[in-house]
Amino acid sequence: MQKKYDHASIEKKWQKKWDDAGLYVADIEKAESPFYNLWMFPYPSAEGLHAGHAFASTGSDIYGRYMRMTGRDVFQPIGYDSFGIHSENYAIKINENPQSVVKRTTKHYEEQMRSLGHGYDWTRTVTTSDPDYYRWTQWLFVKMFEAGLAYKKKATVNFCPSCKTVLADEQVIDGKCERCGTIVEKKDLDQWFFKITDYADRLLTGLGKIDWSQRVISAQRNWIGKSEGRTIEFQVEGTGRKIKVFTTRPETLNSATFLAVASSEGKDVKEKWGKFTGKYAINPINGDKLPIWETNYVDSSYGTGAIMGVPAYDERDREFAGKYYIDIVEKPFTKEILGEKTIHYHLRDWLVSRQRYWGAPIPMIDCPKDGWVTVPEKDLPILLPTISDYKPEGAGRGPLANHKDFFEVKCPKCGCMAKRETDVMDTFVDSSWYFLAYPNVGTKEWKSVPSAGSGQAFFDEKIMKAWLPVNLYFGGAEHSVLHLMYSRFVTMVLHDLKYLDFDEPFPKFFAHGLMIKDGAKMSKSRGNVVNPDEYVEKFGADALRIYLAFMGPMDSSPDFRDSGMEGASRFLGKVWRLFNEEPEHPTSPRLRGVGNTAVSSKLHQTIKKVTKDIEGYKFNTAISSLMELVNVMNEYKVSSTKYLETLALLLAPFAPHLSEEVWVEILGRPFSIHKANWPKYDDSLIRSDTVEIVVQVNGKMRGTLSLESGIGNRESEVTQLAKDDEKVAKWLEGKKIIKIIFVPGKIINFVIS
Fold first, then answer.
1. In whole angstroms, what is the distance from residue 646 CA to residue 642 CA?
2. Cα separation, 193 vs 198, whole angstroms
3. DSSP H or E segment with residue 619
4. How far is CA 182 from the centre of its chain?
5. Nearest-CA neighbor of 749 among 694, 707, 708?
6. Model-level pTM?
7. Residue 673: what are its φ and ψ, rounded to 5°?
8. CA angle 266, 269, 270 (to 5 degrees)
9. Could you tell me if residue 502 is left (phi over 0), alpha (psi between -120 and 50 degrees) or otherwise beta?
10. Does the pLDDT value for residue 727 go beyond 90?
């Protein structure tokens, strides 16, 4: 019998067998108990998968494997969010067309994901830069336009001078591009928007019926930012002009000492900046003259783009007033409330066009007679042409604007010469609906060519009713007001257009944490990015999976340390020996009449604990329980096939390769353990009358004894059992016992010389 666990050959062996058997291919059309287990769409970056991705995806995979063993028909797909700046910037860096780069990076991603032993259904993979996919992204845009939810207008927008494109408000963090960290500028450009603001109230009320972590719900609620207040008009002195101000505190109008209006200058919001205009506004309640300032701490998109400064009652106003020596006056609240009742939202319409190359072309045509006209559905997709001059210019238009063969077309409505839109869609449009695509890939609807006005989509109605909405979504909280908000909006729109019978895509969302390395966030600049490939090669995929799940709670920020990998590897080695080594026949009196009872009790305790912990995403404590069980089984030299089978089943979601190997090759059970039934615990066998005695030598712990409570209270028997224990005996050998300190049911300490 094989004594050493050869992770490399065993893992490759089972990965091939799983693939050949189609073990993880869901029967989409005939599933009796569907469970849609989804991990958030990854970007196929040039650097490939890092351990942070593996941490998140392994958590999702553990849960999916567990659900499969409880009898659910699990659908666990994978795909690539391959359009967008992430892939394009790398292609520009190495002077290679993004199309060829993406083919290489997605292939590498697949190899890495397969090496981890994840249970993905690879038959339904989607790639957003594939025409078969972005044809339906374009279809979505057409539907938005037809519903009056897509429009183009000239607006003051965020522009990243480094990425050379506009950004949605949600992609600006503290005044900087969320992708590259460059301070954004304001530009007036013609851009395409989706009217997400029409759904502001729906997005807010929907938060009350979904099971999401509080931090994500709070982030969305705050971003939507519903405020109720008043709009008050201030007369500008010496002019006929009035400035409208939105305020949620109209009762403080008496204490206003200045007006502040949004300025496009001084972009860094961390440094408050202001300029006195030389003009004054008249306070309508008391006639005071209020200096008018332009400042960067007022958001042009908030309310009317102007505020009344009340430094006595507002911290931001007070900080600004102190910097520019503006009066601070505290007067009693006014009982006379002026202005029109107003409800304001922080949420702005979603800016979806980008002046880049690598994205889905926007399916709109600008006709001199008919205005903006949609490309007929039968003509989709509008293919992204292969061009050599794909680098962005930063001049307010995309590279496609340099190619007449792309943009010169006939209007599909009147036949006259017109111009195709040359901006492309933001990558978040691609990812706003991908979860709908997975179960429909390969169906006749997915491959169909819709006719005008047919109302046809890529959905198979039966499939949609069976599999949607998603049962469990596993992903990062950093996309709270980006992908997660956009997906909810798109789902609501498609519901209203009668394509979907649900309006929330992810009733259950688990937000995993962000893994760090040696106390710091992983980044190339710090040189602390962990490549999982080297750990899979050295320790094996199962050891890496065990460590990633054991590091800490899934919703925390666990710290990856190499020493932890070694511990995970040692644990699996101990498990392997338990299944492979012939047990010694027990002769110690500690096993007489108590061994089977103690092991059985521990086994059922562990089944209960691991089951509860997996369902609560507490994978670290589940593994801790398994480690305790293995120690007890080793202590009692367990050889019972029933006990070993249960251990293998409990270990299967965490270490799928080793579990499959011992299940089939050692225990002789039918392939595959991942289709076997999850073990059930028996409360009557979870005994509470056993105790754990800590054995110390000169105050240092050298072992433990699991005993019936009656025996554990008798010093003479515990003393003899402790002396007979192999772990303790080596510390007593050749030594003189001076004193024995015994605490019944808890500790025995040998004081030696």
1. 6
2. 12
3. helix 619-635
4. 24
5. 694
6. 0.85
7. -60, -25
8. 120
9. beta
10. no
